[in-house]
Amino acid sequence: MTESSKRSAFAIGISVTTIRLIAILLFCAPFVMGASSYCAFAVKVRKPSGVPFNNVPVGMVEKGTQGATVWTDANGTARFCDAPLHAVDIVVGTQCGIVLVKSVKPTWPATRDIFVTYDDTYCNEFTFPDHCQVLLRIQDEDGRPLIGAKFESGRSERGVSDVFGRIFASIKSGEKLEGVLMNEGRETVRISERCVQDDEHDVELKIVLHKRE
Known about the structure:
The protein contains one helix and 14 strands; from the N terminus they run H-E-E-E-E-E-E-E-E-E-E-E-E-E-E. The protein has 213 residues and is α+β, with helices and mostly antiparallel strands. The longest helix has 35 residues, at 3-37.
């Protein structure tokens, strides 16, 4: 083989290698881009009238444990981008009228759309003009919701925290909500909150239950 032929063969070899590299990059690029922008679930919440429902809490529950909470946007959509491969439960709304969608799995590389109709009019049944609505949000040291925390007043149980770490209560004007919050393996916290009727008489409290040393 002449020197000229060797150079031509070498050039052809480089060209073939370059084409193969470009083909591999073009093939892989959509997967790389898709992985960085991929969202597992898009939960689309609507009112009974069909209008998008914004500012509704949507939770992803994995094996009974609250994983993440996202509020719906102006289009009534809450997106969960980081989700496990196995099935999870989706919880929509507050404690009154809550909607549960069980055992949904992601469908990578396509986002799985979940359609939910949520009616919050049930919540109006729990409001009274001479009462204060109280919302207790129970969390651990890292700000994660604690499920199953008990609120006891005297010898009676007033409530147990849900998947969002919430306990709801209602007390009359002038009365006090008093009791103890407790959860296994954590220190107890005493609650004392009086209902005062004014323009913003409803109460929302965040309580951290620390691990016992």
